[in-house]
Amino acid sequence: MSSSESESSQQGRHREAGHKSLLQSDALYQYMLETSVYPREPECMKELREITAKHPWNIMTMSADEGQFLNMLLKLINAKNTMEIGVYTGYSLLATALALPDDGKILAMDINRENYELGLPVIEKAGVAHKIDFREGPALQPFLLEKKQGSFDFVFVDADKDNYLNYHKRLLELVKVGGVIAYDNTLWNGSVVAPPDAPLPKYVRYYRDFVLHLNRALAADPRIEICQLPVGDGVTLCRRIK
After folding, report:
1. Of 26, 173, 182, 222, which has the fewest beta carbons less than 10 angstroms from its beta carbon?
2. Does 102 map to a domain?
3. For 215, what's the count of Cα atoms within 13 Å in the CB-facing half-sphere?
4. CATH of the domain at 162
């Protein structure tokens, strides 16, 4: 295949907003979505996904298959008290809220309230807004430092990649032993294995070294068990063991 044909092929892959699959076969990914994901996607999540697709920053949203995975994971670990760092329009937040019991709580933080409010009417209509405590601003705020150690069952991080390790230091204190921290985008568009001279979008190249550093640090951290999955743009689960 010529370079022009290869570029054309890449441009044609996964055009729908939120599609971040690392699968090389578009047909295989579409089969998975149409067979197992979309038929079981709650109507409210479908509505929010379609609203988000019209937003100019829609690449930031979670893919539908990862939303399904997150929802299932939270049920499997019986999570009740959770945190989300990086909310955007709230697709992952809605997946979490739907999975938690009625008295479950999510401390959700993002620097942009406007994006969150784009999805808020859908979240309210779904009847789960009472579970969410949204805070606008950076996640490493003073009030977070005051939170009780071991008070969270689960934390989902999808925010500024250059701060992931700073989050990790604090989150390991906040999540309970046996609790889980999930870091999103840990395969970073597949750039983690790209050669140094590979033509990458500027933002991908800028954050790649931070993601590589994070992956090495998590793999060497004796306080956690890890599992890195090629779901969406790569997600690493960290279970605190001490």
Report:
1. 222
2. yes
3. 19
4. 3.40.50.150
